[in-house]
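Consider what follows.

. . .
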Amino acid sequence: MTTIAIENRGHTGTADDAQFNISFARQPILNRDGMLCGYELKVRAPQPPAVDAPAAKAHTGADAEASADEASDPARQLARAVLDGLNQGQVRGALTGHPAYVDVSREMLLDDAILQLPAERFMFELPPSIEADDALVLRIVQLHGRRYRFVLDEVSQPNETFAKLLPYAEVVKIDFPRAPRALLPKLASVLKSAGKLLIAAGIDLQADFDTAHGLGFDRFQGYYFARAQASTTRRVSAPRHALLNLLQLLAGEPTVSQLEAELKLNPVLVMHLMKLANSSGLAVGHKVTTLRDAINATGTDRIARWTQLLLYADGRKVALEDDPLLQLAATRARFMELAIERLPEAGRDEIDAAFLTGVFSFVDAVFGGSLESTLNVLTLSRPLQAAILRREGVLGLLLSAVDALERGAWDELAALCERLQPLTVEELAQMGLAAGAWAGVADRSAQGLERIED
Protein backbone atom coordinates (compact mmCIF):
# COMPACT_ATOMS: atom_id res chain seq x y z
CA MET A 1 0.00 0.00 0.00
CA THR A 2 1.25 3.41 -0.89
CA THR A 3 -0.02 6.83 -0.08
CA ILE A 4 0.55 10.38 -1.17
CA ALA A 5 -0.49 13.57 0.53
CA ILE A 6 -1.77 16.28 -1.81
CA GLU A 7 -2.30 19.88 -0.82
CA ASN A 8 -4.75 21.27 -3.32
CA ARG A 9 -6.26 24.71 -3.35
CA GLY A 10 -9.50 25.48 -5.13
CA HIS A 11 -9.39 27.00 -8.59
CA THR A 12 -11.21 30.23 -7.87
CA GLY A 13 -8.12 32.15 -6.81
CA THR A 14 -9.93 33.66 -3.82
CA ALA A 15 -9.12 33.65 -0.13
CA ASP A 16 -11.96 31.22 0.42
CA ASP A 17 -10.34 28.47 -1.61
CA ALA A 18 -10.47 25.06 0.08
CA GLN A 19 -7.31 23.17 0.97
CA PHE A 20 -7.29 19.39 1.09
CA ASN A 21 -4.78 16.80 2.15
CA ILE A 22 -5.45 13.78 -0.07
CA SER A 23 -3.84 10.37 0.45
CA PHE A 24 -3.98 7.23 -1.65
CA ALA A 25 -3.64 3.67 -0.36
CA ARG A 26 -2.38 1.04 -2.77
CA GLN A 27 -3.81 -2.46 -2.41
CA PRO A 28 -2.69 -5.26 -4.77
CA ILE A 29 -4.98 -7.12 -7.16
CA LEU A 30 -3.81 -10.55 -8.36
CA ASN A 31 -4.79 -12.69 -11.35
CA ARG A 32 -5.63 -16.39 -11.30
CA ASP A 33 -1.92 -17.28 -11.49
CA GLY A 34 -1.14 -15.23 -8.39
CA MET A 35 0.66 -12.45 -10.25
CA LEU A 36 0.13 -8.72 -9.78
CA CYS A 37 -2.21 -7.29 -12.38
CA GLY A 38 -3.40 -4.04 -10.80
CA TYR A 39 -3.79 -1.91 -7.68
CA GLU A 40 -6.80 -0.36 -6.06
CA LEU A 41 -6.17 3.22 -4.97
CA LYS A 42 -8.16 3.90 -1.83
CA VAL A 43 -8.62 7.60 -1.22
CA ARG A 44 -8.30 9.34 2.11
CA ALA A 45 -9.91 12.76 1.88
CA PRO A 46 -11.51 15.18 4.34
CA GLN A 47 -15.27 15.41 4.52
CA PRO A 48 -16.25 18.56 2.60
CA PRO A 49 -18.02 21.14 4.77
CA ALA A 50 -21.73 21.61 4.31
CA VAL A 51 -22.90 24.54 2.18
CA ASP A 52 -26.08 26.59 2.60
CA ALA A 53 -26.78 26.89 -1.12
CA PRO A 54 -29.13 24.33 -2.68
CA ALA A 55 -27.45 21.31 -4.21
CA ALA A 56 -26.37 21.98 -7.76
CA LYS A 57 -28.33 20.20 -10.45
CA ALA A 58 -26.64 17.37 -12.34
CA HIS A 59 -25.11 18.40 -15.64
CA THR A 60 -23.21 16.85 -18.52
CA GLY A 61 -21.32 17.88 -21.65
CA ALA A 62 -20.69 21.60 -21.99
CA ASP A 63 -22.64 22.28 -18.81
CA ALA A 64 -19.95 20.39 -16.87
CA GLU A 65 -17.50 23.29 -17.16
CA ALA A 66 -16.74 24.98 -13.85
CA SER A 67 -18.78 28.03 -12.95
CA ALA A 68 -18.44 30.44 -10.05
CA ASP A 69 -21.18 28.56 -8.24
CA GLU A 70 -19.44 25.22 -8.73
CA ALA A 71 -16.08 26.55 -7.64
CA SER A 72 -17.57 27.52 -4.29
CA ASP A 73 -18.98 24.00 -3.75
CA PRO A 74 -16.60 22.12 -1.40
CA ALA A 75 -17.70 18.72 -2.73
CA ARG A 76 -16.71 19.72 -6.26
CA GLN A 77 -13.48 21.27 -5.06
CA LEU A 78 -12.68 18.02 -3.27
CA ALA A 79 -13.48 16.02 -6.41
CA ARG A 80 -11.07 18.20 -8.39
CA ALA A 81 -8.39 17.76 -5.71
CA VAL A 82 -8.68 13.98 -5.92
CA LEU A 83 -8.50 14.02 -9.71
CA ASP A 84 -5.46 16.29 -9.58
CA GLY A 85 -3.84 13.89 -7.12
CA LEU A 86 -4.45 10.90 -9.36
CA ASN A 87 -2.64 12.75 -12.13
CA GLN A 88 0.51 13.24 -10.07
CA GLY A 89 3.62 11.51 -11.37
CA GLN A 90 4.34 10.13 -7.90
CA VAL A 91 1.07 8.23 -7.89
CA ARG A 92 1.75 6.86 -11.36
CA GLY A 93 5.21 5.78 -10.22
CA ALA A 94 3.79 3.82 -7.30
CA LEU A 95 1.54 1.87 -9.69
CA THR A 96 4.72 0.45 -11.32
CA GLY A 97 3.05 0.02 -14.71
CA HIS A 98 -0.12 -1.64 -13.43
CA PRO A 99 -3.64 -0.26 -13.95
CA ALA A 100 -5.33 1.59 -11.10
CA TYR A 101 -8.82 0.87 -9.81
CA VAL A 102 -10.23 3.93 -8.04
CA ASP A 103 -13.57 4.79 -6.45
CA VAL A 104 -15.22 7.75 -8.17
CA SER A 105 -17.90 10.04 -6.82
CA ARG A 106 -20.66 11.71 -8.78
CA GLU A 107 -18.73 14.99 -8.63
CA MET A 108 -15.60 13.33 -10.02
CA LEU A 109 -17.49 11.79 -12.94
CA LEU A 110 -19.13 15.10 -13.85
CA ASP A 111 -15.86 17.07 -13.69
CA ASP A 112 -14.15 17.31 -17.07
CA ALA A 113 -10.80 17.07 -15.28
CA ILE A 114 -11.42 13.32 -15.25
CA LEU A 115 -10.63 13.35 -18.99
CA GLN A 116 -7.00 14.09 -18.13
CA LEU A 117 -6.62 10.57 -16.72
CA PRO A 118 -5.42 8.08 -19.36
CA ALA A 119 -8.26 5.64 -20.07
CA GLU A 120 -5.90 2.69 -20.45
CA ARG A 121 -4.47 3.16 -16.96
CA PHE A 122 -7.58 3.74 -14.81
CA MET A 123 -10.66 1.70 -13.97
CA PHE A 124 -13.48 3.75 -12.40
CA GLU A 125 -15.23 1.99 -9.53
CA LEU A 126 -18.89 2.90 -9.01
CA PRO A 127 -19.81 2.59 -5.32
CA PRO A 128 -23.20 1.08 -4.43
CA SER A 129 -24.26 4.38 -2.82
CA ILE A 130 -23.96 6.39 -6.04
CA GLU A 131 -27.22 7.83 -7.37
CA ALA A 132 -27.82 6.12 -10.70
CA ASP A 133 -30.16 8.70 -12.26
CA ASP A 134 -30.48 9.52 -15.95
CA ALA A 135 -27.86 12.31 -15.78
CA LEU A 136 -25.24 9.99 -14.29
CA VAL A 137 -25.98 7.22 -16.78
CA LEU A 138 -25.63 9.71 -19.64
CA ARG A 139 -22.25 10.81 -18.29
CA ILE A 140 -21.09 7.19 -17.98
CA VAL A 141 -22.13 6.59 -21.59
CA GLN A 142 -20.14 9.65 -22.68
CA LEU A 143 -17.04 8.50 -20.80
CA HIS A 144 -17.46 4.97 -22.10
CA GLY A 145 -17.37 6.43 -25.59
CA ARG A 146 -13.92 7.76 -24.72
CA ARG A 147 -12.84 4.22 -23.74
CA TYR A 148 -13.07 4.66 -19.98
CA ARG A 149 -13.97 1.45 -18.17
CA PHE A 150 -16.22 0.96 -15.16
CA VAL A 151 -16.40 -1.42 -12.22
CA LEU A 152 -19.42 -2.14 -10.04
CA ASP A 153 -17.86 -2.01 -6.58
CA GLU A 154 -18.70 -3.66 -3.23
CA VAL A 155 -21.41 -5.92 -4.65
CA SER A 156 -22.81 -8.37 -2.12
CA GLN A 157 -26.11 -9.08 -3.86
CA PRO A 158 -27.97 -7.48 -6.76
CA ASN A 159 -30.14 -4.42 -6.14
CA GLU A 160 -31.75 -1.69 -8.23
CA THR A 161 -28.55 0.34 -8.64
CA PHE A 162 -26.65 -2.82 -9.64
CA ALA A 163 -29.24 -3.67 -12.30
CA LYS A 164 -29.26 -0.13 -13.70
CA LEU A 165 -25.47 0.19 -14.01
CA LEU A 166 -24.54 -3.39 -14.95
CA PRO A 167 -24.84 -2.83 -18.74
CA TYR A 168 -22.12 -0.14 -18.55
CA ALA A 169 -19.68 -2.10 -16.36
CA GLU A 170 -16.86 -4.23 -17.69
CA VAL A 171 -15.94 -5.55 -14.23
CA VAL A 172 -17.92 -6.56 -11.15
CA LYS A 173 -16.18 -6.58 -7.77
CA ILE A 174 -17.85 -8.91 -5.27
CA ASP A 175 -17.49 -8.17 -1.55
CA PHE A 176 -16.64 -11.79 -0.84
CA PRO A 177 -16.96 -11.84 2.98
CA ARG A 178 -20.38 -10.13 2.88
CA ALA A 179 -21.93 -11.89 -0.09
CA PRO A 180 -24.27 -14.80 0.85
CA ARG A 181 -22.31 -17.99 0.15
CA ALA A 182 -25.38 -19.74 -1.23
CA LEU A 183 -25.78 -16.95 -3.81
CA LEU A 184 -22.17 -16.87 -5.01
CA PRO A 185 -22.21 -19.79 -7.50
CA LYS A 186 -25.29 -18.53 -9.34
CA LEU A 187 -24.15 -14.88 -9.23
CA ALA A 188 -20.71 -15.78 -10.58
CA SER A 189 -22.17 -17.99 -13.30
CA VAL A 190 -24.65 -15.38 -14.52
CA LEU A 191 -22.08 -12.57 -14.58
CA LYS A 192 -19.46 -14.70 -16.34
CA SER A 193 -22.07 -15.68 -18.95
CA ALA A 194 -22.73 -11.97 -19.47
CA GLY A 195 -19.04 -11.46 -20.25
CA LYS A 196 -18.14 -9.62 -17.03
CA LEU A 197 -14.72 -9.89 -15.43
CA LEU A 198 -15.11 -10.83 -11.75
CA ILE A 199 -12.98 -9.61 -8.84
CA ALA A 200 -13.25 -11.21 -5.41
CA ALA A 201 -12.48 -8.54 -2.80
CA GLY A 202 -11.65 -9.13 0.86
CA ILE A 203 -9.72 -12.35 0.21
CA ASP A 204 -7.47 -12.67 3.26
CA LEU A 205 -7.77 -16.43 3.78
CA GLN A 206 -6.49 -19.23 1.59
CA ALA A 207 -9.86 -21.01 1.90
CA ASP A 208 -11.69 -17.98 0.49
CA PHE A 209 -9.23 -17.77 -2.40
CA ASP A 210 -9.73 -21.46 -3.16
CA THR A 211 -13.52 -21.01 -3.18
CA ALA A 212 -13.42 -17.91 -5.39
CA HIS A 213 -10.91 -19.51 -7.74
CA GLY A 214 -13.11 -22.56 -8.06
CA LEU A 215 -16.10 -20.36 -8.93
CA GLY A 216 -14.18 -18.86 -11.85
CA PHE A 217 -13.29 -15.44 -10.43
CA ASP A 218 -10.68 -13.67 -12.56
CA ARG A 219 -9.03 -11.35 -10.02
CA PHE A 220 -8.43 -11.42 -6.28
CA GLN A 221 -7.92 -8.54 -3.84
CA GLY A 222 -6.70 -9.21 -0.32
CA TYR A 223 -3.61 -10.36 1.55
CA TYR A 224 -4.15 -14.12 1.47
CA PHE A 225 -0.85 -14.49 -0.42
CA ALA A 226 1.09 -12.98 2.51
CA ARG A 227 -0.28 -15.43 5.09
CA ALA A 228 1.45 -18.59 6.22
CA GLN A 229 -1.41 -20.76 4.94
CA ALA A 230 -0.49 -19.80 1.37
CA SER A 231 2.99 -21.32 1.68
CA THR A 232 1.89 -24.74 0.46
CA THR A 233 1.16 -23.32 -3.01
CA ARG A 234 4.30 -21.20 -3.29
CA ARG A 235 7.65 -22.12 -4.76
CA VAL A 236 10.83 -20.21 -4.04
CA SER A 237 13.33 -19.27 -6.73
CA ALA A 238 16.17 -21.15 -5.03
CA PRO A 239 16.27 -23.98 -2.46
CA ARG A 240 15.36 -22.70 0.98
CA HIS A 241 18.37 -24.22 2.67
CA ALA A 242 20.64 -22.56 0.12
CA LEU A 243 19.22 -19.12 0.86
CA LEU A 244 19.44 -19.69 4.61
CA ASN A 245 23.04 -20.91 4.35
CA LEU A 246 23.97 -17.85 2.31
CA LEU A 247 22.28 -15.49 4.78
CA GLN A 248 24.06 -17.14 7.71
CA LEU A 249 27.39 -16.85 5.89
CA LEU A 250 26.72 -13.18 5.11
CA ALA A 251 25.91 -12.51 8.77
CA GLY A 252 29.63 -12.90 9.50
CA GLU A 253 32.53 -11.47 7.51
CA PRO A 254 32.94 -13.92 4.64
CA THR A 255 35.82 -13.77 2.23
CA VAL A 256 35.21 -13.54 -1.50
CA SER A 257 36.39 -17.15 -1.81
CA GLN A 258 33.85 -18.33 0.77
CA LEU A 259 31.01 -16.48 -0.95
CA GLU A 260 32.10 -17.78 -4.34
CA ALA A 261 32.11 -21.39 -3.07
CA GLU A 262 28.66 -21.04 -1.47
CA LEU A 263 27.11 -19.36 -4.51
CA LYS A 264 28.53 -21.95 -6.93
CA LEU A 265 26.38 -24.57 -5.23
CA ASN A 266 23.28 -22.73 -6.45
CA PRO A 267 23.11 -21.85 -10.17
CA VAL A 268 19.89 -19.87 -9.70
CA LEU A 269 21.62 -17.55 -7.24
CA VAL A 270 24.58 -17.13 -9.59
CA MET A 271 22.24 -16.19 -12.44
CA HIS A 272 20.49 -13.54 -10.36
CA LEU A 273 23.76 -12.10 -9.03
CA MET A 274 25.32 -11.84 -12.49
CA LYS A 275 22.19 -10.07 -13.72
CA LEU A 276 22.28 -7.69 -10.76
CA ALA A 277 25.96 -6.84 -11.21
CA ASN A 278 25.65 -6.19 -14.95
CA SER A 279 22.39 -4.24 -14.90
CA SER A 280 23.05 -1.94 -11.95
CA GLY A 281 26.06 -0.14 -13.35
CA LEU A 282 28.22 -1.32 -10.46
CA ALA A 283 30.94 -2.59 -12.74
CA VAL A 284 31.87 0.57 -14.57
CA GLY A 285 33.66 0.27 -17.89
CA HIS A 286 33.37 -3.46 -18.49
CA LYS A 287 30.92 -6.35 -18.49
CA VAL A 288 30.99 -8.65 -15.48
CA THR A 289 31.80 -12.13 -16.76
CA THR A 290 32.94 -14.08 -13.67
CA LEU A 291 31.28 -14.79 -10.34
CA ARG A 292 34.24 -13.31 -8.45
CA ASP A 293 33.92 -10.07 -10.41
CA ALA A 294 30.18 -10.00 -9.66
CA ILE A 295 30.83 -10.41 -5.92
CA ASN A 296 33.48 -7.68 -5.90
CA ALA A 297 31.34 -5.32 -7.98
CA THR A 298 28.19 -5.83 -5.91
CA GLY A 299 29.62 -5.98 -2.38
CA THR A 300 28.52 -8.12 0.55
CA ASP A 301 26.03 -5.58 1.93
CA ARG A 302 24.11 -5.41 -1.34
CA ILE A 303 24.30 -9.17 -1.79
CA ALA A 304 22.84 -9.62 1.69
CA ARG A 305 19.87 -7.38 1.01
CA TRP A 306 19.33 -8.89 -2.43
CA THR A 307 19.33 -12.37 -0.86
CA GLN A 308 16.82 -11.29 1.80
CA LEU A 309 14.43 -10.09 -0.90
CA LEU A 310 15.09 -13.16 -3.05
CA LEU A 311 13.62 -15.28 -0.25
CA TYR A 312 10.22 -14.02 -1.41
CA ALA A 313 10.69 -14.55 -5.14
CA ASP A 314 8.28 -17.12 -6.57
CA GLY A 315 10.11 -19.60 -8.77
CA ARG A 316 7.31 -19.57 -11.36
CA LYS A 317 8.06 -15.98 -12.34
CA VAL A 318 10.91 -14.16 -14.05
CA ALA A 319 9.81 -10.59 -13.40
CA LEU A 320 10.17 -9.83 -9.70
CA GLU A 321 8.08 -6.66 -10.07
CA ASP A 322 5.03 -8.87 -10.74
CA ASP A 323 5.54 -11.01 -7.64
CA PRO A 324 3.08 -9.69 -5.03
CA LEU A 325 4.79 -11.09 -1.94
CA LEU A 326 8.24 -9.85 -2.94
CA GLN A 327 6.79 -6.43 -3.74
CA LEU A 328 5.00 -6.27 -0.40
CA ALA A 329 8.09 -7.30 1.56
CA ALA A 330 10.38 -4.95 -0.39
CA THR A 331 7.97 -2.04 0.06
CA ARG A 332 7.77 -2.68 3.81
CA ALA A 333 11.53 -2.91 4.15
CA ARG A 334 12.20 0.29 2.21
CA PHE A 335 9.44 2.14 4.07
CA MET A 336 10.91 1.08 7.42
CA GLU A 337 14.37 2.41 6.66
CA LEU A 338 13.04 5.64 5.18
CA ALA A 339 10.87 6.23 8.24
CA ILE A 340 13.50 5.51 10.87
CA GLU A 341 15.91 7.94 9.20
CA ARG A 342 13.52 10.73 10.27
CA LEU A 343 13.60 9.71 13.92
CA PRO A 344 16.12 11.11 16.43
CA GLU A 345 19.44 9.31 16.92
CA ALA A 346 18.96 6.88 14.04
CA GLY A 347 22.29 5.68 12.70
CA ARG A 348 23.43 3.10 10.18
CA ASP A 349 22.77 0.18 12.55
CA GLU A 350 19.22 1.34 13.25
CA ILE A 351 18.52 1.80 9.54
CA ASP A 352 19.81 -1.71 8.79
CA ALA A 353 17.69 -3.11 11.62
CA ALA A 354 14.61 -1.34 10.26
CA PHE A 355 15.13 -2.84 6.81
CA LEU A 356 15.56 -6.33 8.31
CA THR A 357 12.41 -5.92 10.40
CA GLY A 358 10.35 -5.07 7.34
CA VAL A 359 11.81 -7.67 5.03
CA PHE A 360 11.45 -10.58 7.48
CA SER A 361 7.97 -9.68 8.77
CA PHE A 362 6.40 -11.93 6.10
CA VAL A 363 8.93 -14.75 6.17
CA ASP A 364 6.45 -17.31 7.54
CA ALA A 365 4.50 -16.99 4.26
CA VAL A 366 7.51 -18.53 2.48
CA PHE A 367 8.73 -21.14 4.94
CA GLY A 368 5.47 -22.14 6.61
CA GLY A 369 5.26 -23.02 10.27
CA SER A 370 5.23 -20.43 13.00
CA LEU A 371 6.79 -17.02 12.49
CA GLU A 372 8.71 -17.33 15.76
CA SER A 373 10.41 -20.59 14.79
CA THR A 374 11.42 -19.20 11.40
CA LEU A 375 12.89 -16.06 12.98
CA ASN A 376 14.91 -18.26 15.32
CA VAL A 377 16.37 -20.12 12.36
CA LEU A 378 17.38 -16.78 10.84
CA THR A 379 19.10 -15.88 14.14
CA LEU A 380 17.60 -12.38 14.26
CA SER A 381 18.37 -10.29 17.31
CA ARG A 382 15.87 -10.15 20.18
CA PRO A 383 14.81 -6.53 19.50
CA LEU A 384 14.01 -7.43 15.88
CA GLN A 385 12.09 -10.52 16.91
CA ALA A 386 10.17 -8.50 19.53
CA ALA A 387 9.27 -5.91 16.89
CA ILE A 388 8.02 -8.51 14.42
CA LEU A 389 6.24 -10.82 16.86
CA ARG A 390 4.88 -8.37 19.44
CA ARG A 391 5.24 -4.92 17.81
CA GLU A 392 7.57 -3.77 20.60
CA GLY A 393 9.87 -0.76 20.52
CA VAL A 394 10.24 1.86 17.81
CA LEU A 395 10.66 -0.81 15.14
CA GLY A 396 7.41 -2.40 16.28
CA LEU A 397 5.61 0.94 16.03
CA LEU A 398 6.93 1.50 12.51
CA LEU A 399 5.88 -2.01 11.52
CA SER A 400 2.40 -1.28 12.87
CA ALA A 401 2.38 1.95 10.85
CA VAL A 402 3.18 0.26 7.54
CA ASP A 403 0.63 -2.43 8.33
CA ALA A 404 -1.98 0.30 8.84
CA LEU A 405 -1.00 1.82 5.49
CA GLU A 406 -1.46 -1.51 3.74
CA ARG A 407 -4.97 -1.81 5.15
CA GLY A 408 -5.89 1.83 4.61
CA ALA A 409 -6.51 2.20 8.37
CA TRP A 410 -6.09 5.98 8.43
CA ASP A 411 -7.30 6.63 11.99
CA GLU A 412 -5.00 3.93 13.30
CA LEU A 413 -2.08 5.47 11.42
CA ALA A 414 -2.82 8.92 12.86
CA ALA A 415 -2.84 7.47 16.38
CA LEU A 416 0.52 5.79 15.76
CA CYS A 417 1.99 9.09 14.58
CA GLU A 418 1.31 10.50 18.04
CA ARG A 419 3.89 8.00 19.29
CA LEU A 420 6.27 8.43 16.38
CA GLN A 421 6.82 12.18 16.46
CA PRO A 422 8.08 14.08 14.56
CA LEU A 423 6.67 11.77 11.86
CA THR A 424 3.29 12.79 10.45
CA VAL A 425 0.69 10.97 8.37
CA GLU A 426 1.66 13.12 5.40
CA GLU A 427 5.34 12.21 5.71
CA LEU A 428 4.56 8.53 6.06
CA ALA A 429 2.37 8.86 2.99
CA GLN A 430 5.28 10.19 0.94
CA MET A 431 7.57 7.46 2.25
CA GLY A 432 5.06 4.77 1.35
CA LEU A 433 4.85 6.15 -2.16
CA ALA A 434 8.62 6.20 -2.56
CA ALA A 435 8.93 2.68 -1.14
CA GLY A 436 6.37 1.27 -3.57
CA ALA A 437 8.06 2.88 -6.55
CA TRP A 438 11.46 1.62 -5.37
CA ALA A 439 10.22 -1.95 -4.99
CA GLY A 440 8.72 -1.90 -8.48
CA VAL A 441 12.05 -1.37 -10.24
CA ALA A 442 14.09 -3.82 -8.15
CA ASP A 443 14.34 -6.40 -10.93
CA ARG A 444 13.96 -4.43 -14.15
CA SER A 445 17.19 -2.47 -13.77
CA ALA A 446 18.48 -3.27 -10.27
CA GLN A 447 18.14 0.44 -9.55
CA GLY A 448 15.87 -0.41 -6.64
CA LEU A 449 18.49 -2.59 -4.96
CA GLU A 450 21.15 -0.04 -5.76
CA ARG A 451 19.16 2.79 -4.17
CA ILE A 452 19.09 0.99 -0.82
CA GLU A 453 22.55 2.43 -0.34
CA ASP A 454 21.62 6.02 -1.32
Observations:
- The radius of gyration is 24 Å.
- The chain has three domains: 6-222, 240-310, 320-451.
- The mean pLDDT is 83.
- DSSP finds 22 helices and nine strands in the chain.
